[in-house]
Amino acid sequence: VSLILFPLISIFIAFMTYALLGRLGGPVSALKNAMGKKQFIPYLQPVVDGTNHEITGAEVLMRWQHPQLGLIPPYQFIPLAEETGLIVPMTRQMMAQVRDQFGPMAAELPANFHFGFNICASHFKDLTLVEDCKAFIDAFRENPIHLVLELTERELIEPSEITHSLFRALRRMGVLIAMDDFGTGHSSLAYLQQFHIDILKIDQSFIGRIGTDALAGHIVDNVIDLAKRLQMVIVAEGIETQKQVDYLAPYRLEYLQGYFFGKPADPSEFIEKWIRL
Ligand code: C2E
Ligand code: MG
Ligand code: MG
Ligand code: MG
């Protein structure tokens, strides 16, 4: 009898342990587990020249490639990843993936191609960011690229000694800093200067209301005017229609980004569509 009972009991115990761990695990360990399995992958969206609409770079956007649930968009996991600090190793892993995939084909990229990564505020306290940026830039020595770090205007960075020295190190390496979602947050001119913001990305909510909402048009006009006075490079994001392209044309913005030009795609599709045309 024990010959039959023993395996049954073992199976029962194993099952209970598994069920209990699953319950205790919850979303945080799901993120950790997914990171171990390299399920956070880069998608790339083209950024085009504001005048000739040719590709000039890409924004890297994280996706969770879940074995059962499919492709999970960032708003479903980035907030928790930021709260728990997991966003830092996740971002590092994703930067390494882009570096390893695109570095070897550097020669095929258009000259002065740029890669933009979204970096959360807490990551700007972590010195590994400097090493990772250096490794990224070094991988493209054959045909140098520009590395852009996008920080969202929604979470402001608290000035501290470590953050300032980190920004200095990044600047020395030629890393560019972009203020993402500009117009949705509360950054001041002082803040833009303090962190030497090179690029302003006008939030898509304003671009999306062009032509339908006079106020949004005024905001776009004023943000562009401000950015130009501060000699910042401007990116308009979320461009979906010809009407929006036409509205912005007289401003001769440096860069445009949006579904009108191209949606985010996985690296091989991106390469096929945009690099090896
Ligand atoms: P974001 O950095 O402002 O990125 C632009 C978002 O707008 C992307 O959404 C992109 O797919 C979407 N988009 C681009 N063009 C259009 C358009 O024409 N129409 C519309 N409706 N949407 C457009 P996505 O990939 O879902 O990312 C959402 C946000 O999640 C990002 O906004 C960024 O704040 C965050 N995020 C994405 N990847 C990362 C990451 O690796 N790290 C961190 N910290 N945040 C990330
Ligand atoms: Mg961004
Ligand atoms: Mg944005
Ligand atoms: Mg956004």
Automatic annotation (TrEMBL):
GO CC terms, sorted: plasma membrane
Membrane topology, as annotated: Multi-pass membrane protein
Domain EAL per the UniProt entry, residue ranges: 24-277
Keywords in alphabetical order: c-di-GMP, Cell membrane, Hydrolase, Membrane, Transmembrane, Transmembrane helix
Transmembrane segments annotated in the record for this chain: 1-21
Presence of keyword Hydrolase: yes
EC number in record: 3.1.4.52
Cellular compartments annotated: Cell membrane
Catalyses which reaction(s): 3',3'-c-di-GMP + H2O = 5'-phosphoguanylyl(3'->5')guanosine + H(+)
Single annotated GO MF: cyclic-guanylate-specific phosphodiesterase activity
Protein's UniProt keywords contain Hydrolase: yes
Protein name: cyclic-guanylate-specific phosphodiesterase
Species in which this protein is naturally found: Rahnella woolbedingensis
Whole-protein coverage range: 233 to 509 of 509
